[in-house]
Specification:
One of its GO terms (cellular component) is mitochondrion. Helices cover 44% and strands 4% of the residues. By secondary structure, it is mostly helical. The chain is globular and about 60 Å long. Bound molecules: 2-acetamido-2-deoxy-beta-D-glucopyranose.
Amino acid sequence: MSFIFITLGTCLIVSDTLVPRVARRLSLTKHPNCSTLSGGQAIELLARSGDRRKFPFRTPMGRIYDCCFSFAGLRSQITMSIMKKEAEEGIEQGTLLSCVNDIAAATQHTVAVHLAKRTHRAILFCKENGLLSSEDPILVMSGGVASNQYIRKTLTVLTEKTGLRLLCPPPRFCTDNGVMIAWNGVERLREGKGILSPNEDVCYEPKAPLGVDISAKVRTAGIRLPSGRMKISF
Ligand SMILES: *[C@@H]1O[C@H](CO)[C@@H](O)[C@H](O)[C@H]1NC(C)=O
């Protein structure tokens, strides 16, 4: 069996970094229930008891009809809201805000919706262009984001709606990017694949594109998503 990799969209800023950065900005390690958790785990835990409607962040890139992700605009929206709350509560950066649960819930929700919308467009593009397997088409989500149960649930709603099946590695394998890259090295070493001796000339490339990049074609297609909300409930 052979695989063809096609890139429909890329991430302009790696998604895994937004949530840990928000957690750091909120000083969540000072929260009694989060001191031993990673940033991502802390946001997921606090979000469960937060009200996301208190911070109605805009989903990024709403008017760009492609499959690229960007979290830069969302990050500045969140930072602005945090600064505003700090001013209201009269506290310095580095002190816990009273509304961290609500900010966590709103952040997690907006990230989930952004991922779902861009992926929804990718699924529609693939269907229109015959790029999906006709039997049992699968959406795979991996990496740090795939350890978040809210995001998994959101993408399950999407795959059920579009007739796909969502596959995610077990959360313990959805970890830090650096660890996953290092593990790829371990696997390669074991298989003896792509191993170079120290005195061989190596040509480094700043980017490692995956397969054929057709993101410009996807943008030109400009697929609009059907209106209507997706209901995410637990
Ligand atoms: C920590 O968790 C406990 C148990 O879920 C909860 O009752 C408590 O309110 C939490 N503490 C804070 C500061 O949110």
